[in-house]
């Protein structure tokens, strides 16, 4: 795994195609994102943190973790980040309907997709331990 902090590819490469006023965020140019990351992903050992998965090729990943959160806690977290209106409601609905998990199950082999609860600090610590353990094993197996 890469240990040094990598620059945010989305910002440094200007890989967006406009701005969504309703959601108050940039609109990704998904083709450019995939093109930009493809070479970086070919050697493996890269962790991708993103809130969706259907744009990334299955060949990039050995394992996929989907973090899940209780809707009440999610609402509180997003509200604290300043999310309001449609953006807040859509994010909570995505969690209710398991949208990201379902996308992951459709986009990748079911054997590599894992749900992790992310409700409490203890959950988050346990998730971190699991991911570190998996990462260390991956490094042993691939070096």
UniProtKB/TrEMBL annotation:
Keyword Metal-binding: no
Major subcellular location class: nucleus
GO BP of this protein: rRNA processing
Keywords: ATP-binding, Cytoplasm, Kinase, Nucleotide-binding, Nucleus, Ribosome biogenesis, rRNA processing, Transferase
Single GO cellular component term: cytoplasm
Intracellular or extracellular location(s): Nucleus
Gene Ontology molecular function, alphabetical: AMP kinase activity; ATP binding; ATP hydrolysis activity
Protein name: Adenylate kinase 6
């Amino acid at each position: 795994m890469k240990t040094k902090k990598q620059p945010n590819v989305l910002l440094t490469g200007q890989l967006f195609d406009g701005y969504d006023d309703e959601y108050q965020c940039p609109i990704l140019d998904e083709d450019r994102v995939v093109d930009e990351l493809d070479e970086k992903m070919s050697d493996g050992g890269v962790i991708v943190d993103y809130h969706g998965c259907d744009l990334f090729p299955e060949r990039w990943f050995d394992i996929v973790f989907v973090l899940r959160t209780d809707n009440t806690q999610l609402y509180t977290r997003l509200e604290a980040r300043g999310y309001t209106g449609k953006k807040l409601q859509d994010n909570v609905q995505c969690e209710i309907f398991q949208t990201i998990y379902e996308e992951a199950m459709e986009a990748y082999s079911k054997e590599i997709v894992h749900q992790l609860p992310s409700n409490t600090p203890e959950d988050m610590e346990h998730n971190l331990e699991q991911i570190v353990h998996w990462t260390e094993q991956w490094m042993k197996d691939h070096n």
